[in-house]
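Title: Comparing notes on inverse folding

I've been comparing how different people in this forum approach sequence design from structure. To keep things fair, I'm posting one structure and asking everyone to reply with a full sequence. Here's the target:
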């Protein structure tokens, strides 16, 4: 397990030192949310109804824009070959890279989300549920994204291909997360949606590292 934490720390430190990639993801998230009212209109009632959905869609798109960071650099400099030959199982190495990706992408998006929800005039009652949903659901975005990023290693345009692969799989977190926030805004129960969101993340936690590791091995052969 020490190797797992060392790899997580290494990827987080590299991402923080580079800084620009995290800033691009956060900047994209902010701009996507801010631009939505210009497209749908500034009516407060409409924004209050769809504000949580706007934040979720922007978070999904921001997560997609960061998938290249998962494996591309290590694939280019031979780091993935070393990971595949190391005593640490490749599945755990993939899990460590997913954890680092979430810490530098999903967590910052979750922290910023309530402030952006206020910008789009989301219902105040929905904001805590929105943040909780993102906290539960964004790990699944990193895990599923790792599978798509591994499958596209070596492709000519991996970012576009990964987006095409991953966006349909991002629909369940979007539906459950936005549904929970909408239920909170209308006074309904949010337990079912949050449980489904948590179940989806747990399934991704079990399946995604195995699938991504298999795809990485295939790309290295």
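Reply #1:
Here's my take.
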């Amino acid at each position: 397990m020490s190797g797992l934490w060392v790899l997580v720390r290494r990827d987080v430190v590299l991402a923080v030192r580079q800084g620009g990639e995290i800033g691009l993801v956060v900047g994209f998230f902010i701009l996507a949310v801010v631009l939505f009212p210009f497209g749908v209109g500034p009516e407060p009632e409409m924004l209050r109804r769809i504000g949580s959905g706007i934040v979720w869609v922007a978070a999904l798109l921001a997560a997609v824009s960061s998938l290249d960071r998962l494996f591309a650099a290590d694939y280019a400099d031979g780091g993935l070959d070393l990971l595949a030959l190391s005593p640490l199982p490749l599945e755990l190495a993939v899990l460590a890279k997913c954890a680092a990706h979430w810490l530098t992408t999903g967590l910052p998006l979750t922290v910023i989300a309530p402030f952006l929800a206020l910008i789009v005039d989301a219902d105040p009652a929905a904001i805590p549920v929105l943040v909780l949903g993102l906290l539960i659901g964004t790990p699944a975005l990193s895990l599923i994204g790792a599978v798509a990023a591994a499958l596209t290693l070596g492709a000519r345009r991996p970012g576009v291909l990964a987006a095409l692969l991953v966006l349909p799989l991002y629909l369940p977190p979007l539906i459950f997360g936005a549904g929970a926030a909408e239920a909170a805004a209308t006074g309904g129960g949010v337990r079912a949606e949050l449980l489904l969101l948590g179940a989806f993340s747990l399934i991704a936690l079990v399946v995604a590292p195995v699938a991504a590791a298999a795809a990485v091995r295939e790309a290295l052969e």
